[in-house]
Amino acid sequence: MTGRKNPWGSTGKSDEPASDRPGGERGPSGEDGPRNPWLPGGGEPGKRRSASIEDIFKGRGPEGPRRRGGPGGPGGPSFRLPERPGGKSWVPVIIGAVALIWVAATSIHFIQPGEQAVVTWMGGKYSHTLDSGTNFTAPWPLQMVEKENVTQVRLEQVPGTKAEKLILTSDQNLVDLSYLIRWNISDLALYKYQLSEPQNALLEIGEAAMRAAVARQQLDTVLTGEGRAEIEQDVRAAMQARLDAYRSGISVQGIEINKVDPPAQVEEAFKDVSSAQQDADAAMNRARAVAQQLLARAQGDASEFNDIYEEYRLAPEVTRRRLYYETMEAILSKTDKTIVESGNVMPYLPLPEVQRRSQGEARPATPRGE
Amino acid sequence: MNALLQNYKALLIGAVALAVALLASIVIVPETHQAVVIRTGQPVRIFNLFRPDQPYGQTGAGLQLRIPFVEQVQLIDRRVLDLDMERTQVLSNDQQRLQVDAYARYRIIDPVKLVERAGSERQLEAQLLPILTSVLRQELGRRPFTALINAERGTAMSNITHTLDRQAREYGAQVLDVRIKAADLPEGRPLDAAFTRMQTDREEEAATIRAAGQRDAQIIQAEASAEAARIYADAYGKDPAFYDFYRAMQSYRQTFLNGEGQSSMVLSDDSAYFRQFKGNQ
Q1: Residue among A182, A147, A175, A10 at smallest CA distance from A81
Q2: In the CATH scheme, what architecture does the domain A154-267 have?
Q3: Mind telling me how many Å the CA of B60 is from chain A's nearest CA?
Q4: Would the ipTM clear 0.90, i.e. be above it?
Q5: Strand ranges (E), B48-138
Q6: Are A194 and A242 in contact (CB under 8 A)?
Q7: Were both Cys, which of A99, A221, B242, B279 would link to A227 (CB 3.0–4.6 Å)?
C-alpha cells in the first residue's frame, strides 16, 4: 500500500539512478574511480583492474554489492519501468492490456473443420453450438467452450479382446462373432446432455441388437456369410432406432461383422465337414478316372476287333488259321513241350523229369523256392 | 494501514459476509442435472426439471438462487440413466436354463418423488434392480426355450418394460426400455450339451457328404462299365463265333506269355496244331 514497495509505484526519487546499475563499482575503498572496469584505473593500474573484475563477479553472485549496503537497499530486483509521460501510473494501462488479451484469447474460437463446440454460460447453462470457422463468444468465465470432433467416425470393436463371443442362433447353435460399430456424433448438445454414458449405451444397444439379429438367423446362413449383410442392416437400423428414441445425438454409420466362426470346441467337426466335401470330390474324381480308362479300353478293344473282323470277313478260313498258328507259335516257342503220341503206344510221361527241369530253370530266378 | 482497518472494520466484515452469503446462495445447476431445493426437510422448488419438449438453453440450468443455510440443494441426474442388471439364470417353462443379461434405461421425471421415496439415484438403482430381475424371471419363465433365444421378438420385452415402469414411477422414474443384452447357455452341462449336439450334427453332415461322394463315385464307374459293355457288345455281336476264337487266342497269349511262372505243356499229337506234323493228311 505504501508506494515504496510497489515496483510500479510512483516516483521514488531517493533510489533512482544507482539501482539501475547491475553491479556497483563502489568498492570498499570508496574512491570515486572510473565506473567501467575495463578501463585502467588511477594509481596502480594492474592491481586495480583485476580487483575490479573480481568485484564484478562477486557482484553477480548472490552476495552482491547490494548485500554490502549498496544503494539498491533491501528488497528485490530493482527493475523499473520508464516513467510514463505525464507522470501517471502504468497500472491502468497494464490492466487494460491484460484484459484485452484475456478477452481476445477466450472469446475468439477457431473451430476446425469437422469440429463443433458447445458454448455454456457460467454455471453450466447451454447457450448454443458453434460450427467450424471463426466464432465469437463472451469471454471466459462468462461463457465456456468445449470442442469435439463430430464428423470423425469412431470405431468400437466388439469384443475388444480376442475373447470368444458366443451368440445363440435361431436353431440353438452357437457362433463366435466379432463386429465393429462405426459411429459419429450427430448432435453435440444431445450427445453431451442426453445420456449418462453415451458410449456405454451405444455398446449395450449394439450388443442387444446384434444378439437379436443373429437369433433370427440359422447357424449356416450366419456362417456362410449369406445372412451377414442382412444382420448388419438389421443391427444398424435397430441401433439407430433405439438411439433416436433416447435422443442420444449419435449416428450409427455402419456395422461390420469381421469374424464369424464356429465355437473353438467344435471347430474340428466343422473343419471335418469341409474336408468331407473334399473327400467326396476326390472319390468322384477317382471314379471318373477309372471310368475313362474303362471306356477307352473298351473303345480300343472294339476298334481292334473291328479291324481284324474286317480282314476276317474277306478271307475267313485263312485268317482264322493264320491267327491260330501265330498264337500257338508265340506260346509254344516260350514253353517246355512234351508231346505224347496217341494211339497204340503206351503213353509214358516222365513227369518227375519234367518237374525237375522246370524247377532247375526256375531256381536262379526264385532262390527261396525250396 | 492499521488506521484503515480500524476505520472500515465494520464495512469490511460486512462486505466479506455479503460475499459469503452471495456465494452460499448461488446454486450451480448443470444441464445434466435437476436440482431439488429442500427447506428444512421439505422439497420446495425444482430447478431444471426434465420436460421432454424443452430444448437445451431454455431449461432452468445455470446459476440459481437459494436461501443460504436454510435451503439444501440436491442434484438429481436429468439424463437417461443405465440400470445394468447382473447376469441371472432364467428357467424357461420347458425347464431349460438360460443366462440372461439385461439392461434398462430410465430417466428421473419427478425428482421430488425420488428424493422423498428413494433418497438418491443410487438408492433408486438398488430398489429397481431386484424388481427388474424378478420381473424378467417371471415374464421369461412363462415361455419355452426357443422363444427365449429370440426374446426381443414378441411381447416379452414390452411386458417387462411396462411392469418395471409402473414400479419405477412410484419413485419418480420413467423406464424407457428394457433390453436383453445377452442370452447365453449356462457354463457346464447345458453348454457342453450344446457343443456336443453341434459336433454330432457336423459329424453326421460330414459322414453324409462322404457317403454321397462314394455313391456318386460308384455310379460313375458303373455307368462307365455299362457303356463299355455296350461298346463291346456292339463290336463282338457282329460275329460271336469269331469273337470266341479271337478272344481265345488273346487269352492264350495272355495266359502263357504274359502270365507269371513257367509253363510246361504236355501236348497230345492229336492236337490240331500237329495236324500237319504227322504228315498223315
Answers
A1: A10
A2: 2-Layer Sandwich (3.30)
A3: 8
A4: no
A5: 62-65, 71-77, 81-84, 88-91, 97-108
A6: no
A7: A221
